[in-house]
Please model this.
Amino acid sequence: MRNEDLEVVRDNPLLEGVAPAVVESLLRGAFLQRFPAHVDLAREGEPADFLHVIIEGQVELFARHNDRETTVSVIGQGQSFIVAAVLLDRMYLKSARAMVQSRVLLLPADAVRKGFAEDAALARHLACELACAYRVVVKELKNQKLRSNLERLANWLLVRDAETGGKGRFALPFDKKVLAARLGMAPEVLSRSFAALAPYRVTVAGADIGLHDIAALKNLARPCPTIDDPTV
Model:
């Protein structure tokens, strides 16, 4: 790894407060690589050889069964995957691919497990990653089981609007096929759901979304902090 790459890697929050000897052990067999869009980074069913940390870019976590495929989540800069498989030394339960050109740090799984056992700071960081991932799964389970397709879409639009500054207008961060899978519906159902939001003054022009009556949309969505608020 080049010296300039080492400086970027050492500043990662995952390594904050970790003993220098443990950091050296983690980085000894590590790789910092650039991946073009649509390249697979991890495959479901394969052994967890590396912990992946996103330095730049966006990654889709997805799964396949029979002839079906679904998006599990979309993650970005500063996030890691797939921590549980690495710590338990088991196979990946989902696959990962770059959605855009991305730079990813690959930390050897053996070194991560060794560091987890020896260094309290690293163990704390990884435990927090696992805890956050667990809470995301619980929120998503509630979202899928307690809401209709239309309610899930309405709440996603409100959350995305808040993430992009609350201006009532934003571009979709990925294509509609990924959004449909992310929300647990078929693409044609997503199209019908967008059409059903027209009375709530939601407009769609390609990837551009307009929310022209936030109060009406909130009245439909009935957002819930224990499902929708990323800080809860």
